[in-house]
Amino acid sequence: MTRLPAITAEPLDEDEAEAAFGAMLDGTVDDAAIADFLVALSDRGEQAGEITGAARAMRARMVPIAAPAGAIDVCGTGGDGLHTLNVSTAVSLVVAACGVPVAKHGNRAASSKSGAADTLEALGLNLDRVAETAEDTLADLGICFLFAGRHHPAMGRIMPIRRAIGRRTIFNLMGPLANPAGVRRQLVGIARPAYVPIYAQAIAALGTDRTFVVSGDEGLDELSLAGGNELGVVEHGHVAMQRVQCGDAGLPAAPITAIRGGDPAHNAAALRALLAGEPGPYRDAVLFNAAAALLVAGEAGDWPSAAEEAAEAIDKGLAKTLLDCWIKTLK
Questions:
Q1: Could you report the per-residue pLDDT of 57-109, keeping only the tens digit for each?
Q2: From 3.10.560.10, 3.20.20.70, 3.40.1030.10, 3.30.70.3270, which CATH number describes the 72-147+173-330 domain?
Q3: CB 3.0 to 4.6 Å from 38: which of 44, 143, 169, 287, for a disulfide?
Q4: Is 105 annotated as a binding residue?
Q5: Which residues of this UniProt protein bind Mg(2+) 2 (predicted)?
């Protein structure tokens, strides 16, 4: 069996981390050693090179798909424990309705009541066909859902270990960094504001055309209406940190409780109402995050115009029509 490196105050370099995580994913390390390694890494705090190496190991073992130029992903790490409505799922539909191809990476709920897959299924999307048709729907409709379990089979042996540990590890940060479509533009939400610059540095090392890494001050893994947000802009291999709030996009503030979610049926109904034009904090949260995604995609020049473009995609029925077509295509 492969021996993992010791976790000390000195971070592993990218190559060491990639080799260690590759061995874990390939099954050449015993479960107890993996658990000890992950806990020690979490206790010390994961650094950018370690995140980069782990992501490279996952990317090397994933099942990829082809994507059109300019495709983006809108995906959060999850794990914020705030149980909000599905913002990034709605944002994906709105942004795709604006003409930007969206390769949405996601999974079922781990710590929330309804993950992206759960809500899409409740809306009527056939998850048994979503993986096999991903390339086609991305090319034809401008959207697909990349069900993480189908595209990362190597994670199968890691999941029981993560459940046994019962706490957050570096794998909670990996989803957005291992998109099977190999997107070069992303809006990534993480549930740890202090980690935004570290995570952004990892993305810069992995390579991106333009990525926003965001976190609400309360630990929300997307842009929050409730207050300030950390924003790391990753472009040309560099990271620039900014502060942003909903007023920058011309949107009103609202507490997190205003977008509290529920089970998949509840969240699906809220998303349907949103696409039908229902006003309120959920719409505003989606517009704020969709504005960020449109800025990432280069489809708008500033926050207010980006939010207006997203609002038009909802109010003209474009996002609702896209969802209905997508569901019909997978039947």
A1: 999 999 999 999 999 999 888 777 888 999 999 999 999 999 999 999 987 75
A2: 3.40.1030.10
A3: 169
A4: yes
A5: 221-222
DSSP state of 4: P
The answer to whether the annotation marks 42 as part of a ligand binding site is no
Any binding-site annotation on 112? yes
Query: Is 134 flagged in the annotation as binding?
Result: no
Dihedral class, residue 118 (left if φ above 0, else alpha if ψ from -120 to 50, else beta): alpha
- pTM, two decimals, is 0.95
Where exactly are the structural domains of the chain?
72-147+173-330
Residue 112: C-alpha distances to residues 18, 103, 195 (Å)? 29, 22, 21
Q: Is 80 annotated as a binding residue?
A: yes
* 89 is annotated as contributing to ligand binding: yes
Q: Is 162 annotated as a binding residue?
A: yes
Residue 133 DSSP symbol: T
What would the pLDDT profile of 294-328 be if each residue is shown by its tens digit? Answer: 999 999 999 999 999 999 999 999 999 999 999 99
Tell whether 221 is in a known binding site: yes
**Does the annotation place 111 within a ligand binding site?**
yes
